[in-house]
Each structure stands twice: as structure tokens, then as C-alpha cells.
Design goal:
376 residues, mainly alpha, 15 helices, globular
């Protein structure tokens, strides 16, 4: 019955709703690049990532101190700097989730992306002042990035037709995987050729340009878009009539605390985010200390897994919408199926435990890794 009310001909991939997904895709690429670039540049920023009782045979190339300022930060300080951005992200989640239903997403996401980009530009100067100022910048950057990553979900309440929500959100969220791939792939070359400060400048400038473009290109409601075709507006609004017209209900705290499915989602999300951020944050340092590769090869080795995750993320979004639209599986079954398929192989969970004795990783390094990951 609902399909009879929808326009017969609506723009497909070349439409404004897909254009919005592409813009958000690049926004997520930028915030992830700004978040993770320090993971690799840390190898070049400190005078050594070698532990005192390891042989000093690192193959890391000696970089020019002029274009690559070097600081004497201990492993404990490095762990605090790398994990400090997650303090800000944790602080921003709940407030932004609440404010996203009150204030326009155009302002929240645009200003937050601009703030994160400006802070990225300031990090090289902050490093010259001291590690404490770098930590402050990273915490503020985490708050801004938490606002972007959390607030964007509110956009699809008004922009995504139900049968296209999987592919639109997968296009958008895949930027979180493409960002690490890009930054790890190119940062090693940038550090080697131009110096590690240029990594922050390049992604900071790109983020500033993208945030300004966001203010001009995005509209909170598709009905207000001046250049969108009437057929696409009718298609979106008619498919979301019940959702958009319904009033917001108060948050059922007690019911949420008693909901087993909600707790399953929370635990699953926590496990995924914890393990993913642990590996993303410390893989470049681990490769530098244990495998003794130069900074270019470090970036290449650290980035390949994200390329595969990006490809399969896009495919999963398309496949989920296909299964839903053809009524092959119910929506709940699709979610359970893809969550199960996305689980790590049992052997992968013990990767670090297997590598430690074989590669003779010192206990202190393991302690620093666990100490920093506990902050996630």
C-alpha cells in the first residue's frame, strides 16, 4: 500500500540523498584521518620508540630534524597522547545525541568538523609547547569528532527512505574505514618527504574546506533544498510520513535498562569498538618497535586491512537492502546474520598473545598497550 503512494520515477544513484551520503562519507574520512594520523606520526615525532633493553637496530630512517621535530616523550606519555582523543569522544556521545534532536545538524556537524580541523592545524605548534597541550588539543578534537560521528545519525531520520537506509548509511559509515586506510597509506610518505607536521596541515586544511562546503550544500530537511527535484522530495517525504510526523517520545530509561536486546547491542558495540581502536591506535607503534620497518612500509602494512573492510562494508549495505526489499529475511534476521558474520575469527582474538612470545615483545610494552586501550 505504501509503494502506491510513492512517485513512480525518482532519481536513483545520481540524486541529492546519495550526494549527501557521499558528503558525509568524506566527512567521516576526514575525522578519521585527523584522529589516526598521530598513530603513525608518533613514530617520527619521538626521538625513539625503541625500548631501553631492546637492541638498538631499528630500521626506521633518520629523518631531518628541521622538517621532523623530535621530542623525548616516554611510552607512558605517548599512551596518554594517543588515547586522549577518546576521552573527548566519550564525553560528547550522550550530550550530542540529545542535542541532535533539538538543534540543526547543519550547525552541529559543520562547526564540529571545522573545530576538529583547526585543532589538527594547531597540533604541531602544541607539540613544541609540550605534551600537555597536545593532550588538551586531542581531547577537544575528540569532543568535536564525537559530535560529527554521533549527530549524523539524526540526518537519516529525514533523508533516508526505509528501503534505502542500509545502502545510504553503509556509504556514509564506510568513511570511518576509508579514513584510516588513506591516512596510514600516505602519512608515511608525507613524513618522509615533507615532514610529519605536514600530515596535520594537509588533513586539517582539507577538513576546513569540507566544513565550509557543508554549510553551503547541506539542508536539514529535504523539503527545504532549493535544487532538489520535486519527485525526489515527494519520494523521501512520502516514504517517511509516519516517522517524520510522529512526535518524539520521552526516553524510557527503566525500560532500556531492562531490555536484553539493548544490552546485547551495547556489549557487542563495546567489544567491537574496543578491539578496533586498540589495533588502530597501536599497530603502527607495534610494527615500528617489533618489526623494525621504515615509516613508509609501516603505513602500507597498517593500511591494507582497512581497504578490505571498506570494500566489504559497501557490499554488506547493498546486500542487506536487497535481502530486505525482496523480503528474503526479516529485518531482525538480517541484523543478526550480519552481526554474526562480522565477528572475528576465534584465532584472531589471540593475535597479540600469539605474537608476543614469538616476537619477544617486552612486558612493559604490553602493559602500555593495555593501559592505553583501557581508556577506550
Amino acid at each position: 500500500m505504501e509503494n502506491q503512494c510513492l512517485p513512480k520515477k525518482v532519481p536513483g544513484f545520481c540524486s541529492f540523498r546519495y550526494g549527501l551520503a557521499v558528503i558525509l562519507h568524506f566527512c567521516n574520512i576526514v575525522i578519521m584521518a585527523q584522529r589516526m594520523c598521530l598513530n603513525l606520526t608518533m613514530v617520527a615525532m619521538v626521538n625513539t620508540t625503541e625500548l631501553p633493553h631492546l637492541p638498538n637496530e631499528s630500521a626506521v630512517e633518520t629523518l631531518d630534524d628541521v622538517k621532523n621535530p623530535v621530542y623525548s616523550w616516554s611510552l607512558d606519555i605517548q599512551g596518554l597522547i594517543l588515547s586522549s582523543i577518546f576521552f573527548g569522544m566519550v564525553m560528547a556521545q550522550i550530550p550530542v545525541g540529545y542535542l541532535s534532536g533539538i538543534y540543526p545538524m547543519k550547525r552541529i556537524i559543520g562547526s564540529s568538523l571545522l573545530l576538529s580541523s583547526v585543532l589538527s592545524l594547531l597540533i604541531p605548534s602544541a607539540a613544541q609547547v609540550g605534551a600537555a597541550l597536545v593532550i588538551v588539543c586531542r581531547v577537544l578534537q575528540g569532543i568535536a569528532q564525537g559530535a560529527v560521528s554521533t549527530g549524523q545519525h539524526e540526518i537519516w531520520v529525514k533523508w533516508a527512505p526505509p528501503l534505502e537506509r542500509g545502502r545510504l548509511t553503509s556509504m556514509t559509515l564506510s568513511g570511518f574505514v576509508m579514513g584510516p586506510f588513506i591516512v596510514l597509506l600516505v602519512s608515511g610518505f608525507i613524513c618522509d618527504l615533507l615532514g610529519w607536521p605536514m600530515v596535520f596541515y594537509i588533513f586539517g586544511i582539507f577538513g576546513c574546506v569540507l566544513s565550509l562546503s557543508w554549510f553551503f550544500l547541506f539542508y536539514d530537511d529535504p523539503k527545504d533544498h532549493p535544487y532538489m527535484s520535486s519527485s525526489e522530495k515527494d519520494y523521501i517525504t512520502s516514504s517517511l510520513t509516519q516517522q517524520v510526523s510522529s512526535r518524539r517520545q520521552s526516553l524510557p530509561i527503566k525500560a532500556m535498562l531492562k531490555s536484553l536486546p539493548l544490552w546485547a547491542i551495547i556489549l557487542n558495540s563495546f567489544a567491537f569498538i574496543w578491539s578496533n581502536n586498540l589495533l588502530a591506535t597501536y599497530t603502527p607503534t607495534f610494527i615500528s618497535i617489533v618489526l623494525h620497518v621504515n615509516i613508509r612500509e609501516n603505513g602500507l602494512l597498517s593500511s591494507f586491512s582497512y581497504l578490505l573492510a571498506y570494500i566489504f562494508g559497501i557490499v554488506a549495505g547493498q546486500l542487506s537492502d536487497f535481502l530486505h526489499s525482496r523480503k528474503i529475511f526479516s529485518l531482525v534476521t538480517i541484523r543478526k546474520l550480519f552481526t554474526t558474520l562480522g565477528k572475528e575469527h576465534p584465532g584472531q582474538a589471540n593475535t597479540w598473545g600469539i605474537l608476543q612470545p614469538r616476537l619477544e615483545v617486552p612486558n612493559r610494552m604490553v602493559r602500555i598497550i593495555l593501559q592505553g586501550s583501557s581508556l577506550l
